[in-house]
Design a protein that fits this description.
Length: 425
């Protein structure tokens, strides 16, 4: 079987709206490695977009899911509930920052988690408006698209977005937007477009994912908390991509002395199985009436079983600490190239949620061309990379936190040679 033959079938049978980064069709995977249908091995620096923090097919995750398969696969928790759902909610309630009573719901995708967080915020406050940030990504549902601060490709051609959603600039000093600029814009928004007494929530990614892996500055997050408290607004932390040890903390908001009212989670929560969660202050989470939250597949027992195993693995293998070690290795290797690669304008990211940003060396402008050239050369050498950013000039690194030391060294060597090759192309 050939990748090209499957790609041809894909073109005939699947909507082109389902974009694909590579034409590598997976046959099997293990920890940080993927083998395609032609038998070629790849080092996976994408983790299915930050989903397998604990690696592909971690033995404990597989064991937990197999055990659940022998019991039951679906009852719908809203019809016949199960203790494992309750226990996982208890675990998340205890893990999330904040010394107050919390409650949790489970749904299936990150976008669903965000949708439900907004529903809960609106219901609890009796307000309608929501503020998000430029460059933010919150999903491909209509509310997710409305909140997302990037037009292409997420909003193009899909018509009117839900109303009462406003955007403020996210502070990125590299692109000329300071914390003061962002806060001043937020103040102007309150004065010109939406009365803060109508705002239910402000939603923010502690580290922007699709937007370019820009970390929210500490003083910015503190200011958001203060603004919310002053105006009766809820602060929602979108931890869909940042959660579960990726940033060198269990949750990225733990890098700040700030506690959100509601947190959304998904991706790496269940190690590759579809599961997402919303956790928040108990009184907020209890605001919607019975039946107002949930879904047929919400909190699927296989995903719940996987999530319990993921949380165990993170603790037992000390993946929070390992994320910091791996991220330091990666950033050190990139820093060693800066003198010879003027295209590198920034190297960043907490823990093992890292990125390198490229500009055209002559023009000083964002260079998606250079970033893509690095990606393609790395792919040709057997390393899977992802780009991101409003200008698509950022390469983000999301390898499993369980990646073997030897494989990590091999990946860094490929990355270095790919960057050098892109310069010479």
């Amino acid at each position: 079987m050939k990748n090209s033959a499957i790609a041809e079938r894909k073109n005939q049978s699947i909507s082109r709206g389902v974009g694909m980064t590579t034409q590598v069709y997976a046959e099997r995977a293990e920890n940080s490695e993927i083998w395609d249908v032609e038998g070629r091995r790849y080092i996976d620096f994408s983790s299915g977009i930050a989903v397998v923090n604990t690696g592909h097919r971690h033995p404990k995750v597989i064991e937990a899911v197999k055990a659940q398969l022998d019991r039951f696969t679906h009852t719908c928790h809203q019809v016949v509930p199960y203790e494992s759902y309750v226990h996982l909610a208890e675990r998340l309630n205890g893990m999330l920052p904040g010394k107050f009573d919390k409650k949790t719901i489970f749904v299936t995708t990150g976008a669903e988690a965000v949708e439900n967080a907004i529903k809960i915020a609106r219901n609890a406050t009796g307000r309608q408006a929501v503020i998000a940030f430029a460059g933010g990504f919150h999903g491909r549902t209509f509310m997710g698209m409305a909140l997302t601060g990037k037009t292409a490709p997420y909003k193009l051609g899909f018509g009117a977005m839900p109303g009462d959603v406003f955007h403020a600039p996210f502070p990125v000093p590299l692109h000329g937007v300071t914390v003061a600029d962002s806060l001043a814009a937020l103040d102007r928004l309150f004065k010109a477009d939406v009365d803060p007494s109508r705002v239910a929530a402000i939603i923010v990614e502690p580290v922007q994912g699709e937007g370019g892996f820009y970390e929210a500055p500490r003083d910015f997050v503190s200011a958001l908390r203060r603004i919310c408290d002053q105006n009766g607004i809820l602060l929602i932390a979108d931890e869909v991509q940042t959660g579960f040890a990726r940033t060198g903390k269990m949750f990225a908001m733990q890098h700040h002395d700030v506690v959100p009212d509601i947190t959304t989670m998904a991706k790496s929560l269940a190690g590759g199985f579809p599961l997402s969660a919303v956790t928040g202050r108990a009184e907020l989470m209890d605001s919607p009436g019975p039946g107002g939250l949930g879904g047929t597949y919400a909190g699927n027992p296989l995903g719940i079983a996987a999530a319990h195993a993921v949380l165990d693995v993170i603790e037992e293998e000390k993946l929070v600490d390992r994320a910091n070690l791996l991220g330091s290795r990666l950033k050190q290797r990139l820093e060693s190239l800066r003198a010879d690669v003027p295209e590198i304008v920034d190297i960043r990211g907490p823990g093992f949620m890292n990125a390198v940003e490229f500009n055209d060396a002559a023009k000083g402008l964002p260079s998606p061309e250079f970033a893509n050239a690095v990606r393609l050369k790395a792919l040709d050498k057997g390393l899977i990379l992802l780009t991101c950013g409003v200008y698509s000039n950022v390469i983000r690194f999301l390898a499993p936190i369980t990646i073997q030391d030897g494989v990590m060294t091999e990946a860094l060597d490929i990355l270095e040679s790919s960057i050098k090759d892109a310069r010479g192309a």
